[in-house]
Specification:
- There is one protein chain.
- By secondary structure, this protein is of the alpha+beta class.
- The chain is 59% helix and 10% strand.
- The chain has 14 helices and five strands.
- The protein has a five-stranded antiparallel β-sheet, with no helix packed on it.
- Strand 2 and strand 3 form a beta hairpin.
- The longest helix is centred in the middle third of the chain and has 37 residues.
Length: 364
């Protein structure tokens, strides 16, 4: 029995490897996962939430370059390197876009950057305020590869940090949906009768409520916030898992191996967890991939409506909300870039779901 199971797993793995888009999507998801975990290590702006604002250079096109004066932060707190890597630099140095500067007699004179032909404000500061009394290391040309948003923040950094919410909400939501869905579906399918009727009534009531409205209701009940959105999305996605698990268990519990397990005196818990569930996980894995994509879309919709991740936290949906009106103002990339990120990640999960469906259909 174990040899046959291993053979089926190897056959499924071989079929999956032959699916180009499935393998490509798998590595793309791994790449996005690494980017989301180590976002602050990759982001040009490593401040917390990539929230370094430069209003003088707002809404600039991709590839925009400007001379940037970095003023070392006077506020120092004990923030570990681990904390900086995963949560951003809470004591980020202040950056000022400048158009020209000169350092003479221990005084730095610089003119702030001003766009649209305006004259920048001229300011001075003592060179002694810089470490080693040297200004040159703190004046460098900075390139914004994706341009800047309407607050002058680095769009590339916001996109990288925003990937964390969209990626991890899928994991948390799918985990919650699997725990609740498998539990409810297993009880309904295995015991049947009034228990099945009651659980199916709960499933049908939950199913009849539009997903977005249900998420909004749960979010408002739990309060706005990062974790609340994760829980709300997860609690609305368990019904699909429960229906699939219920249907699979109704078919599986009549199989001979279940009858043999009952004859050997095994209890219901062991029969469900050790014998039935391992044999019906293929469709559950496939629907989990689809739920992953759905969770990303729901979170983006909530952030667009303003009840998802709250500012200044970076989120792809919130970025589209902030800049969708720029589509008709000649700067569509501000909304298109995060939109393409959402589309590519959702498509990757749908493609890997299709590949898993084909690979796990070993009988075919």
């Amino acid at each position: 029995m174990r040899h046959k199971s291993n053979s089926l797993k190897q056959l499924a793995l071989q079929k999956f490897r032959k699916n180009f888009w499935g393998v490509f999507s798998f590595y793309f998801i791994i790449f996005i996962g690494l980017v989301s975990v180590f976002a602050y290590a990759f982001a040009p702006d490593s401040s917390q939430y990539a929230n370094q604002m430069h209003l003088a250079i707002h809404s600039k096109k991709p590839g925009f370059k400007v001379t940037m004066l970095t003023i070392p932060s006077q506020l120092k707190t004990n923030q570990s390197g681990f904390d900086k890597l995963f949560f951003g630099d809470k004591n980020a140095d202040n950056e000022i876009p400048i158009s020209e500067y000169k350092a003479e007699n221990g005084v730095l004179t610089y003119k702030e950057y001003a766009s649209d032909g305006l004259e920048g404000v001229e300011k001075t500061m003592n060179v002694s305020e810089f470490p080693n009394n040297s200004v040159d290391p703190y004046i460098k040309e900075k390139t914004f590869l994706f341009g800047t948003d309407k607050y002058g923040r680095d769009l590339l950094s916001r996109v990288l940090v925003g990937a964390r919410i969209s990626f991890f909400i899928g994991f948390v939501a799918v985990f919650i949906s699997l725990v609740v869905g498998i539990f409810m579906g297993s009880i309904a399918g295995y015991f049947g009768g009034k228990v099945d009727a009651l659980i199916m009534w709960v499933i049908n009531v939950t199913w009849s409520i539009p997903t977005l409205l249900l998420v909004i209701a749960i979010t408002l009940a739990l309060g706005k916030g990062f974790l609340q959105v994760f829980i709300a999305v997860g609690l609305t996605m368990w019904v699909e898992v429960a229906r699939v698990v219920r249907g699979q268990i109704i078919s599986a519990k009549e199989m001979q191996y279940v009858t043999a397990a009952r004859a050997l005196g095994f209890n219901d818990y062991r029969i469900i967890t050790k014998h039935i569930l391992p044999n019906i996980m293929a469709p559950v894995i496939v629907i989990s991939a689809a739920n992953f994509a759905a969770a990303i879309l729901i979170e983006s919709g909530l952030s667009f409506l303003g009840i998802g991740a709250q500012p200044p936290m970076a989120s792809w949906g919130a970025m589209i909300k902030d800049h969708y009106n720029y589509i008709i103002l000649g700067k569509p990339y501000l909304a298109i870039i995060p939109g393409l990120c959402i589309m590519s990640l959702v498509m990757a999960f749908m493609l890997i779901g299709n590949a898993l469906r084909d690979a796990l259909d070993v009988k075919g």
